[in-house]
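Supplementary Text 2. Reproducibility record for the structural model of the 85-residue chain.

All settings were left at their defaults, and a single model was retained for analysis rather than an ensemble. We include the record here because the model underlies the residue-level annotations in Supplementary Table 4.
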Amino acid sequence: MIEFLSCPKNVLNVSTHLLIVGMLMLLAGIGAGYGLEGQLSIPALVFAHAGVVVGPTLLKIGYVMRLIAQHYMRKEGGEAGCAVA
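Retained model, structure tokens:
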């Protein structure tokens, strides 16, 4: 796993996925937790509200990973060469 994340291109790819998943979790949590509160059970509401907390957390982690990857790609001259075995 360390070798995978040592390549800035891979970190950029993972960060993009985290941003997408975080946004989807946030939007689904808002929609379910605040729009459908009358139709959902208590466990489903707890899960929806957890998405409102976890979604932005994934967004922040994905954004920081993106900044780090772009920093290392710029530092290495634009095109990051990753060793593939």
